[in-house]
Write a structure and sequence with these properties.
The protein has one helix at 2-21, and strands at residues 24-35, 40-41, 57-69, 73-78, 83-92, 98-104, 109-115, 122-127, 132-142. The protein has 143 residues and is mostly beta strands. It has one domain. The strands form two sheets. Strands 2-3-1-9-8 form a five-stranded mixed sheet, with no helix packed on it. A hairpin with a 4-residue loop joins strand 6 (98-104) and strand 7 (109-115).
């Protein structure tokens, strides 16, 4: 019985050590609603204003910041809790580039993003009607 138990303990220890060796990133996600009918860009979105071309108004409707290890995901219920946004930490390249997968299953929307600079923000858009769209500003930061 001891012989069977020891290898299991060793595997668990290796698994725990492996998890601790995984790179960690902090992911900051802003969920933004933009419209051609409303005016005014949220002051917090000043740096991203160019991303909203064609839209007169944009406001942050939700945001999340969380730390994850490679292979892990964060999720956020968005748009009045009717949709689930997930962001998965896919890979950390040798050059420091961070690759993520961003998805909203209800919209059949999925995109892989590569962030090449420190704190690089990628803005993704999905049109929700003729006059509105949802934008996702995703910023990972290596910890």
């Amino acid at each position: 019985m001891i012989e069977t138990f020891l290898p299991v303990v060793t595997v668990l220890c290796l698994s725990t050590a492996e998890a601790q060796a995984q790179p960690k990133i902090k992911i900051h996600v802003q969920v933004i609603e933009a419209s051609t009918k409303t005016k005014g860009i949220d002051p917090q979105l000043k740096k991203l204003k160019k991303a909203f071309r064609g839209y007169q108004g944009a406001k942050i409707v939700d945001q999340l910041e969380a730390t994850v290890v490679k292979g892990s995901s964060i999720s956020l219920e968005i748009l009045r809790k009717s949709r689930l946004l997930s962001v998965t930490f896919k890979d950390l390249a040798k050059d420091g580039s961070i690759r993520l997968k961003v998805a909203i299953d209800a919209f059949k929307f999925s995109a892989e993003t590569t962030h090449k600079k420190k704190n690089a923000t990628v803005v993704l858009a999905h049109e929700t009607s003729d006059t509105s769209a949802i934008f996702l500003a995703v910023t990972p930061k290596l910890e």
